[in-house]
Structure to design on (309 residues):
């Protein structure tokens, strides 16, 4: 059994953009933790020599010209073949956790999430509003998709071959971690969290994540995926709001009509009726799209079974 496990191929994936200060240490740490693994560094147009340093340290260095972490992950997942994939950031904030690979190789999870928020994140992280942003994103995803994930935005993860080859990467930037979590939740793929340490970036190393612009992209991604994976809930909620507004506008009009036989407020009647029609169309759209989503899930299950190793 141990021999069979040792034959499994592990790939360490390190997406990097200007991480010359930390990439050497990260490679050494992950090589020590996963001595049989192949370490891939995807250089996303770095200008500080990150790729050269990584190559000197013995990593397999590739270059991805389309800017953005999502674009890098798409290339990694497309071209790299392995039984277990370990993803980490090149900024030395995610210490390696060998147990993450063990869980994937034992078939206990399709994705293992390195949970920073239950350990040292809130004390180590010095960037303003990041803590609040993490809490907001966590609450939204757990509420909308009925899951219980502590750390949504972590870049420390492990994946099975099946997850990697069935995950359609649509995001281009830092929304990728959110998309991974929602994909697993919506398709009932087993996620497991392991508490990991977090250490803030060393002095001189700067984060590429913009709190406000990237935060808005993450929120937009959550809304988009909620609409795509749960269309009845999405369009139904909007339809319900319009129905309530329509009823509030039409009730006084009909009350006056039954009391006096007159309709003095025709604009209110027309606009309220228009809102009611739109609400009904939204309900119908939600029902139709829900059927399509269910069919897509059935097709995904068939593809998932065929891809399973």
């Amino acid at each position: 059994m141990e021999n069979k496990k040792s034959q499994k191929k592990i790939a360490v994936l390190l997406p990097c953009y200007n991480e010359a200060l930390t990439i050497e240490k990260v490679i050494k740490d992950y090589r020590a933790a996963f001595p049989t693994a192949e370490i891939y560094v995807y250089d996303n147009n770095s200008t500080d020599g990150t790729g050269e340093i990584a190559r000197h340290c013995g990593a397999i260095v590739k270059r991805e010209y389309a800017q953005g972490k999502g674009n890098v992950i798409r290339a990694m997942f497309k071209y790299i073949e392995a039984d277990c994939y370990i993803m980490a950031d090149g900024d030395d904030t995610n210490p390696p956790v060998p147990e993450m690979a063990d869980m994937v190789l034992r078939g206990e999870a399709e994705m293992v999430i390195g949970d920073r928020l239950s350990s040292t994140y809130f004390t180590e992280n010095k960037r303003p509003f990041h803590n609040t942003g993490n809490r907001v994103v966590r609450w939204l995803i757990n509420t909308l998709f009925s899951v219980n994930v502590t750390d949504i935005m972590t870049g420390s993860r492990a994946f099975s071959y099946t997850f990697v080859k069935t995950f359609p990467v649509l995001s281009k930037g830092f929304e990728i971690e959110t998309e991974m979590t929602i994909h697993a939740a919506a398709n009932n793929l087993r996620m497991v969290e392991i508490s990991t340490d977090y250490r803030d970036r060393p002095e001189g190393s700067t984060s590429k994540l913009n709190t406000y612009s990237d935060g808005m992209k993450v929120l937009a991604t959550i809304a988009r995926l909620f609409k795509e994976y749960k269309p009845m809930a999405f369009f139904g909620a909007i339809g319900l709001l319009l129905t309530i507004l329509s009823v509030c506008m039409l009730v006084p009009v009909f009350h006056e009509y039954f009391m006096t036989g007159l309709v003095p407020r025709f604009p209110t009647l027309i606009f309220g009726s228009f809102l009611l029609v739109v609400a009904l169309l939204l309900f119908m759209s939600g029902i139709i799209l829900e059927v399509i989503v269910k069919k897509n899930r059935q097709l995904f299950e068939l593809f998932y079974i065929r891809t399973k190793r």
Notes: The chain has twelve helices and seven strands.
